[in-house]
Amino acid sequence: MSRETLFNAALLLGLLLVPIWALLTDEPFTITLATRAVILALAAAGLNIALGIGGLVSLGHAVFFGIGGYAMGILAHHAQGFTPLMEWPFVIEGTKSMPVIWLLAIVVSALAALVIGLLSLRTTGAYFIMITLAFGQMFYYFAISWSAYGGEDGMSIYVRNDFPGLNTLAPIQFYGLCLALLVVVLVFSARLRRAPFGLSLNAARQVPARLEAVGLDPMRLKLVAFVISGAITGLAGALFADLNRFVSPTMFSWQFSGEIMVLVILGGVGRLFGPVAGAVTFVALEHVLGGLTEFWHIYLGLILLGVVLFARGGITGLIAGREASHD
Amino acid sequence: MSTILIIEQMLNGLQSGVMLFLMAAGLTLIFGVMGLINLAHGSLYMVGAFAAAAVAGLTGSFVLALMAALVAAALAGAVIEILVIRRLYDSDHLDQVLATFALILIFSEGTRWVFGSFPLFLDIPDALSGPVTLPGGIEYPLYRLALIVAGLLVGVGLWVLIERTRLGIQIRAGENDREMIAALGVDISKLYTLVFALGAALAGLAGALVGAIQSVQVGMGEPVLILAFVVIVIGGIGSIKGAFIGALLVGLTDTLVGIFLPELLKLFMDAAPATSAGSAIASMSIYILMSLVLIWRPSGLFGARA
User: Fold this and answer.
1) Contact A142 B98 (CB under 8 A)
2) Transport: present as a keyword of the record (chain B) (predicted)?
3) In this structure, CATH architecture of domain A3-320
4) Is residue B3 part of a domain?
5) Does B11 contact chain A (CB < 8 Å)?
6) Would you write out chain A's pLDDT as a tens digit for each of its 327 residues?
């Protein structure tokens, strides 16, 4: 077993043990923190597919996170107000069922990723970074001016949505649900990177010309990766909104896009468990440093600078060495 | 909808355009010469505004405030170039984005720590306050007119610097081939620090000038930064001419669409939905403009073909 596998196993075990630890120490808030970490890890795992394997530096992934959040917000808003979402040409009611919300979040973010990807992938390098950033701003300003759904103030949901057979209001059960989804996505990512698609995508990042020479279209591979990536981040957005029972335009903000990217880099770009390591560290830092000083972002900035300048493999790279999965 | 209103709004668009140009020029210069994406450019804008507000508060002099903005931003730029940015020239864009994002966090929280969370105010100097009557009987704030003139002057100065001076030749040569000009005996790392400080000073100047018509607060740099990115993407990254045309396009689009689209929509629909739909589309208009330009020319209006 390689050091990275051991590290990943330890991380997963740690996440599984959080509820027990919280019960033993009688600090139920730990579970909420861990839920936050797991959901952020899910968002970052989405970005890791585009960024880590495909090399697509998207500074606009908050778009999909926000779409997921608003999918939840809009459906639940109509369900709790007993107003139909749409009356014409046929009636669509809101819903409080999580699986339906997730499905909508995934489908709409995938569609948005398809359109944004089609336009953005015409460009490369710095242009790609900036055009994804600009799409993020476009959605951000749209959400701010969309007064039907709260505009700048966002909207609150009174009760967390339902999942068949579970009491989602119990923190442990909601945590379990989020963790299960994260594991599903990680298993999917692990299989994806060994599948022909993942291998060719890896090649599309490194030597697009050679890929074309063997008859594969690097553009199409990148587009598919971008869509999958957006859909996963969208799912995370729906969960995040459900965790806070609140959605607002800040979910679309470019700072948030930057934060998702920070999670990926902090954990280790392209590493399977990089997003998990990054998100856990981020939430822990936020909690510990945030308790010490109001200005904890200064320290986050310094740590981040340190990682970029001196520890290029992120946390996973520091602990497990450089050789492993990422070329 | 009178002609006067239209001209007034065009002047407003022009004013925000030339201020954007000050930001975009530095950003595009730094990208063109060093190949660096600098997200922290907005922080330098903020540094300039805060320095100006602080010095104006102490001395009451607007000229001293502007000097302070230039010096503080250039100094901050030189310091981060030497400590951090210099190590990023050979890295990929991802590392640059991350490191300069980290710098934003440090600058923003550091400023909040020093100055607190409340906005500061920078007053328009007495000599430039009040309206002025333009030909045709248009009343327009003198200060905004001064901003347009100042921005255009800086633009001309920049053009002279780049096209007509020895430093400009070195900068242009640095864009094309850094090994070659290093071999010709130009101290490339000193040149890079200088270019970065120059870009920073322009951003700081813009921050101070705009700070007098808006409030000076933490986070003021990021919206402008993103607009400046849109500008240089439209104009073509690395092209100062592109940055100028792009800045005017963005400034005018942003202002004019915001004012006139709701009015235009009112001709076709009820007033309330027209206003909300109009303002929704207006806030997205420059991003739509940018997408259109990129679909037409993926490397901007004046960018080198990638």
Assistant:
1) no
2) yes
3) Orthogonal Bundle (1.10)
4) no
5) no
6) 688 888 889 999 999 999 889 888 888 889 999 999 999 999 999 999 999 999 999 999 999 999 999 999 999 999 888 888 777 677 778 888 899 999 999 999 999 999 999 988 988 888 899 889 989 988 998 898 888 888 889 999 888 888 988 888 889 999 999 999 999 999 999 999 999 999 999 998 888 888 888 888 989 999 999 999 999 999 999 999 999 999 999 999 999 999 999 999 889 888 999 999 999 999 999 899 888 888 888 998 998 899 888 877 888 888 887 644 444
Judged by CB atoms closer than 8 Å, whether chains meet at B299 and A302 is answered as no
All residues of chain A having their beta carbon less than 8 Å from the beta carbon of residue B108 are 297
Using CB atoms, pick whichever of A131, A295, A312 lies closest to residue B113.
Answer: A295
Taking a C-beta distance cutoff of 8 angstroms, is the pair A249, A140 a contact?
yes
Number of H helices and E strands in chain A, helices first, is: 13, 4
Residues pairing with B139 in the sheet: B133
Q: Domain limits of chain A?
A: 3-320
- B-facing residues of A in 283-322 (CB < 8 A) are 295-298, 300-302, 304-305, 307-309, 312
Residue B215 lies in a domain: yes
Amino acid residing at B98: L
CATH number at residue B104: 1.10.3470
Q: Is A35 exposed, middle or buried (0-12, 13-18, 19+ CB in 10 A)?
A: buried
Block residue for tokens 């909690």:
A287
Q: What is the pTM of this model?
A: 0.90
Question: How far away is chain B from the Cα of A130, in angstroms, using its nearest Cα?
Answer: 7
Please tell me the distance from the alpha carbon of residue B17 to that of residue A258, in angstroms, as a whole number.
Answer: 27
